[in-house]
Amino acid sequence: MQEAIILVGGKGTRLRPLTNHTPKPLLNVAGSSFIRHQIARLMDAGVEHVVFATSYLASLFEEEFKDFSQDLEISYAVEEVPLGTGGAIRNAARLLRGGPADGPVLILNGDILTGLDLGAILARHKDREADVTLHLTRVPDPRAFGLVPTDEAGRVLSFLEKPKTPEECVTDQINAGCYVFSRSVLSAIPADREVSVEQETFPELVAQGRRVFGHTTEDYWRDLGTPLAFVHGSADLVTGKATSPLVAGPVEALIHPTAVVDPTARVTGGSTVGPHAVIGPQVVVERSIIGRGVTLAEGARIHESVVDHDSSIGRESFLHEAVVGCHSHVGAQNELPGRLRLSCGIRIPARGVRVSGTAVACPTVH
Ligand code: GTP
């Protein structure tokens, strides 16, 4: 039986306020929660049992899948206290059904969008008789990542910290957050304390001379951990740059049938519009995520942003790379600049925030 573990227990702090009430893997991406896209890919690869390693807002995962009736068994390994990525793997391994000691288990981070062929990495792991195989991807600028150099046969040489100088950029390969573990290796991870698989388990396995290999591919890859990456990943799924069994085909935008979009509005660039959203006249939504029950008033422009559920954006307001938490209201003629995050339930009055144009007349008497 092919089994998998998905790590979904992180707090997703970089995606706040979207993750204040919803764990990152349950956020909506291109019409479905992200974890459903992952599950669909696992099922396509022949996985029959998946263990969710949960911690933060754990009960919401069981809620999401309580009516799941497809041909996949789902188990939940709940950590009362987060055990870190390595501790989570070891804890979840308790619930695996078993198999030969060297049988492979797929392990996925719950926030990576990738076109990796899961069958191919499993086959590679078997051919090399590896203990662990890591999916590696190449990045144009490796300075923001820990690096994973390999030898000509693909064997991992070391796990290096983020490089500080050009000389330290010895490779452009980074850990892509998908692994195959032989079952016997899982028991080497301590079960009773927090462990980082990246910083402790992998370097220790290499130091012990275990067979740790990289599987480097040029497939689509994106870590959805930051707001901009999140909107870009969602848009890539809609426009077909990234694929998922749950997204029918490339389209310009994914608009829920219950949403109401004025004929003069433009929704483009792989945007998604959730149920019961109302998009007013002359609105432009580009490469953005508009949540359930959101209202965008006439002339609003939303660019590479997320507006979470039940919020409203006033007339002629402009959002650029912004995140608006749920149940918030942005009045008319505001300009929310790049990287601004509005918490849940915030109200900004008309013309309260501007970064350009003429100053509004001072309403106070001096
Ligand atoms: P940030 O707080 O924004 O860094 O996000 P995060 O909490 O998700 O951390 P990170 O992106 O580094 O985590 C990578 C993957 O591991 C994600 O899928 C997390 O859900 C998962 N993860 C991180 N820490 C834990 C943990 O302690 N337990 C479990 N079960 N999963 C974890």
Structure description:
By secondary structure, the chain is an alpha/beta fold. It is 18% helix and 26% strand. The chain folds into 2 domains: 3-223, Alpha-Beta Complex (Spore Coat Polysaccharide Biosynthesis Protein SpsA, Chain A); 252-348, 3 Solenoid (UDP N-Acetylglucosamine Acyltransferase, domain 1), CATH 2.160.10.10. It has 7 helices and 28 strands. The strands form 6 sheets. The protein has a 7-stranded mixed beta sheet, with helices on both faces. The chain is elongated, with a radius of gyration of 22 Å.
Quaternary arrangement of the chains shown? single chain
Please tell me the overall pLDDT. Answer: 93
What is the tally of beta strands?
28
% residues in beta strands: 25-35%
Class from secondary-structure proportions: alpha/beta
Hetero compounds: guanosine-5'-triphosphate
Output the radius of gyration: 22 Å
Shape: elongated
Could you tell me how far the N terminus lies from the C terminus, measured between alpha carbons in angstroms?
77 Å
Number of helices: 7
Q: Approximately how much helix is present in the residues?
A: 10-25%
CATH topology of the largest domain: Spore Coat Polysaccharide Biosynthesis Protein SpsA, Chain A
Largest sheet: 7 strands, mixed
User: Runs with pLDDT <50, length 5+?
Assistant: none
Count of structural domains: 2
Relevant CATH superfamily of the largest domain: Spore Coat Polysaccharide Biosynthesis Protein SpsA, Chain A
Q: What spatial order of strands do you see in the largest sheet?
A: 5-4-1-6-9-8-10
